[in-house]
UniProtKB/TrEMBL annotation:
Transmembrane segments: 21-42
Keywords tagged on the record: Cell wall, Glycosidase, Hydrolase, Membrane, Secreted, Transmembrane, Transmembrane helix
PANTHER family in the cross-refs: PECTIN LYASE SUPERFAMILY PROTEIN, PECTIN LYASE-RELATED
Documented EC number(s): 3.2.1.15
GO biological process: carbohydrate metabolic process
Top-rank lineage group of the source organism: Eukaryota
Broad class of enzyme this protein falls into: hydrolase
InterPro entries given in the database record: GH28_Enzymes (IPR051801), Glyco_hydro_28 (IPR000743), PbH1 (IPR006626), Pectin_lyas_fold (IPR012334), Pectin_lyase_fold/virulence (IPR011050)
One GO MF term: polygalacturonase activity
Native source organism of the sequence: Cajanus cajan (Pigeon pea)
Pfam family, one: Glyco_hydro_28
SUPFAM superfamilies reported for this sequence: Pectin lyase-like
Name used for this protein in its record: Polygalacturonase
Similarity section: Belongs to the glycosyl hydrolase 28 family.
Length: 497
C-alpha cells in the first residue's frame, strides 16, 4: 500500500498542460460523473432492493481464515434483548490463541446482537452476515472508561477519562471487519439527547476505534448511528476502508461551525499513514471524513503526521459541516493526501481545510481532483481562524503553514460560493492551484464575489468559472501566463453570501 499511494501521489503534481487534452479530459470527466451517478442511484434504491432480497437465503459466509467460528458457539443470542458481550469476548479470546496459525474468523449470523463494548484481537476477521446487526447497549454504565487520547490532552468533550468505543482495538495487527453488508448500529440517539441535555460527564465513545495498529481492513458493512465519531483509526498504519456505508441523521447535530466541538458523527482519521478509503457512501451529522493530527501543544508534542492517504470514489453528504475536511486539529502535520472522484450533495461545504494560530504543523501537498458539488453551500473552503483550543492554554505565536494545495477538474451545480480561501496576515495560504473548474451557482446577487480570497497566493489554469480572485495568476490551457495576480493580501471574503 505504501507503494500504491506513493505512486499515485507521484504523478499527480499539477503541471501546465500542453493540450490537446480538452476532449479526452471531457471524456474522462463524463466517465467518472457517470460512475458516481450510478453509485448514487444505486445507493438510493438499494434499501428497497434489500427488502426484495428477504426470503432468499443469504449467501453463506466465505471462509477467510483457517479457523471459523459462529457467535452462537460462544452462547450468543440474536434476539435484540440478550446481552452478548461475553459471547463476543469468548469468541475473540478463542481467536487470540490462534494468532500463530493465521488467526480466526468470527461470524455474526442474521439477528440483532445486543452488546456492550468489547475488544478485538490481532489476526481476527469479524464477519457480519446479511441482516446481522451488532447493536450497542444504550445504558452508559456498560461502557468502560479509558484514558483520553494523548494528542487531545485532557479530553475532548470533558476532561478526564472517556468512554470506550463499542468495538475497540489497540496495539493490533491484521484486523478485518467485513461481511455481506451486516450492520454495526451504535443506537446513538440516547447519547445525542444526553449530550444536548448536558447529562454526560465523560467524552462519548466512537463506534469503532482502532489505536496504534497496522494492517486493518474495514469493508462491505454498514456503520450507523454512532454515539460519537463513527470510525476512528488513530495512529495506525496501512488501513483500508472500502465499500462501507456510514449513516447518521444529517441534522440532529448542533451547528458545528467552529464553536461546539461536540457532535462529531464523523469518520475521522487521526495521525494515520498509508491509508486508503474508497467506494463508500457516507451521510452523517458532521464531516463525512476529517483528517486530523493533533490539537495545539498536545499534537505538537505527540508529533505524528497524517500522510499518504488516498480518499476516492465516494458519495458524501454533510448537512452541517463538510464532505472532506482536513483539520482543524493538524498540529502533527498533514501531507500527501489525494482526494479524487468525490460527489458531495446537499451539504453545507464541499472540501474544507481549517486551522488556527496556536496549531503549528502544516497542511501541504494536498491534491483534490474530479470533484462534483451538487447543492452545496461553499464548495472549497480554506479557513485559518478556526479558534477552538484545549482549555489548558495554547501559544498563539505558533503558526501553521498552509501550502501546495491543488484542485483539478471541479464541477458543480447549485453552489452558493464555489471558492473561499481565507488566509490571514499571520497564516497566508501559499501556492494554491485551481485547474479546470466549472461550478454552477445557486442563485445570483449582482457583484458578489464567488471566488473569494484573502492573504492567498496561487494560480488558476485552463477554464475556471466563476472568474478567479485577483490575487491569483492566470494561465491559459497552453500554460502561458495571461494575467499576473495582484498582491496576495487583497481580500474579498464576503460571509453575506
Ligand atoms: C447496505 O445496507 C445499507 C443500509 O441498509 C444500504 O444503504 C446499502 O445500500 C447496502 N449496500 C449494499 C451493497 O447493498
Ligand atoms: C480493551 O482494552 C483496553 C486496553 O487494554 C482496556 O483499557 C479496555 O478496558 C478494554 N475494554 C474492554 C471492554 O474490555
Ligand atoms: C460491496 O459490498 C456488498 C455487500 O455489502 C457486495 O454485494 C458488493 O459486491 C461489494 N462491492 C465491492 C465493489 O466490493
Ligand atoms: C496492508 O494490510 C493488508 C491487509 O492486512 C496486507 O495484505 C498488506 O500486505 C499490508 N501492506 C503492507 C505494505 O504491509
Ligand atoms: C467485499 O466484497 C467483495 C465483493 O463480494 C469481495 O470481492 C471482497 O473480497 C470483500 N472484502 C473482504 C475484505 O472480504
Ligand atoms: C440541511 O437540512 C435542512 C433541513 O432539512 C435543510 O433545510 C437545509 O437546506 C439543509 N442544508 C443543506 C446545505 O443541504
Ligand atoms: C505548488 O504546489 C504544487 C503541488 O500542488 C507543486 O507541484 C509545486 O512545485 C508548487 N510550486 C512551488 C513554487 O512551490
Ligand atoms: C502584504 O503582503 C506582502 C507580501 O506580498 C507582505 O510583505 C506585507 O507585509 C503584506 N502587508 C499587509 C498589510 O498585510
Amino acid at each position: 500500500m505504501v507503494e500504491r499511494s506513493a505512486g499515485k501521489l507521484g504523478w499527480l503534481i499539477v503541471r501546465p498542460k500542453t493540450v490537446p487534452f480538452a476532449s479526452r479530459r471531457t471524456f474522462f470527466a463524463f466517465l467518472w460523473v457517470a460512475a458516481l451517478a450510478s453509485l448514487f442511484v444505486w445507493q438510493r434504491n438499494s434499501t428497497n432492493g434489500l427488502l426484495t432480497l428477504d426470503g432468499i437465503a443469504p449467501a453463506p459466509p466465505p471462509k477467510l481464515r483457517p479457523a471459523v467460528f459462529c457467535l452462537t458457539e460462544f452462547g450468543g443470542v440474536g434476539d435484540g434483548v440478550t446481552l452478548n458481550t461475553e459471547a463476543f469476548e469468548r469468541g475473540v479470546r478463542a481467536i487470540s490463541e490462534l494468532g500463530s496459525r493465521g488467526g480466526g474468523q468470527l461470524n455474526v449470523p442474521p439477528g440483532r446482537w445486543l452488546t456492550a463494548p468489547f475488544n478485538l484481537t490481532s489476526h481476527i476477521t469479524l464477519f457480519l452476515a446479511t441482516h446481522a446487526v451488532i447493536l450497542a447497549v444504550q445504558d452508559e454504565k456498560y461502557w468502560p472508561l479509558m484514558p483520553p487520547l494523548p494528542s487531545y490532552g485532557d479530553g475532548r468533550e470533558h476532561p478526564g477519562p472517556r468512554y470506550s468505543s463499542l468495538i475497540h482495538g489497540q496495539n493490533l495487527r491484521d484486523v478485518v471487519i467485513t461481511g455481506h453488508n451486516g450492520t454495526i448500529n451504535g443506537q446513538g440517539q440516547i447519547w445525542w439527547t444526553k449530550f444536548f441535555q448536558k447529562l454526560l460527564h465523560h467524552t462519548r465513545g466512537p463506534l469503532v476505534q482502532i489505536l496504534w495498529s497496522s494492517d486493518i481492513v474495514i469493508s462491505n458493512i454498514t456503520l450507523r448511528d454512532s454515539p460519537f465519531w463513527t470510525l476512528h483509526p488513530y495512529d495506525c498504519k496501512n488501513v483500508t476502508v472500502k465499500n462501507v456505508t456510514i449513516l447518521a441523521p444529517v441534522y440532529n447535530a448542533p451547528n458545528t461551525d467552529g464553536i461546539d466541538p461536540g457532535m462529531y458523527l464523523l469518520q475521522m482519521l487521526y495521525s494515520c499513514e498509508d491509508m486508503l478509503i474508497e467506494d463508500c457512501y457516507i451521510s452523517v451529522g458532521d464531516d463525512a471524513i476529517a483528517v486530523k493530527s493533533g490539537w495545539d501543544h498536545y499534537g505538537i508534542a505527540y508529533g505524528k503526521p497524517s500522510r499518504n492517504i488516498v480518499i476516492r470514489n465516494l458519495v458524501v453528504r454533510s448537512n452541517v459541516s463538510s464532505g472532506i475536511s482536513i483539520g482543524s486539529e493538524m498540529s502533527g502535520g498533514v501531507s500527501d493526501i489525494l482526494v479524487e472522484n468525490i460527489l458531495v450533495w446537499e451539504s453545507r461545504r464541499g472540501m474544507r481545510i481549517k486551522t488556527a494560530p496556536g496549531r503549528g504543523g502544516y497542511v501541504s501537498q494536498i491534491t483534490f481532483r474530479n470533484l462534483v458539488f451538487k447543492n452545496v453551500g461553499v464548495g472549497i473552503v480554506i479557513k485559518t481562524d478556526y479558534n477552538q483550543h484545549p482549555v489548558s492554554g495554547y501559544d498563539p505565536t505558533i503558526l501553521p503553514i498552509l501550502s501546495d494545495i491543488s484542485f483539478t477538474n471541479v464541477r458543480g451545480q447549485g453552489v452558493r460560493v464555489p471558492v473561499r480561501i481565507q488566509g490571514s496576515e499571520e497564516i497566508p495560504v501559499r501556492n494554491v492551484t485551481i485547474q479546470d473548474m466549472r461550478v454552477g451557482i445557486a442563485y445570483s446577487y449582482v457583484n458578489k464575489p464567488r471566488f473569494q480570497c484573502s492573504f492567498a497566493q496561487g494560480q488558476v489554469l485552463g477554464t475556471v468559472f466563476p472568474a478567479p480572485c485577483e490575487n491569483f495568476d492566470q494561465y491559459n490551457e497552453q500554460g502561458q501566463l495571461v494575467k499576473q495576480g495582484s498582491s496576495m493580501n487583497v481580500s474579498d471574503i464576503d460571509y453575506e453570501i
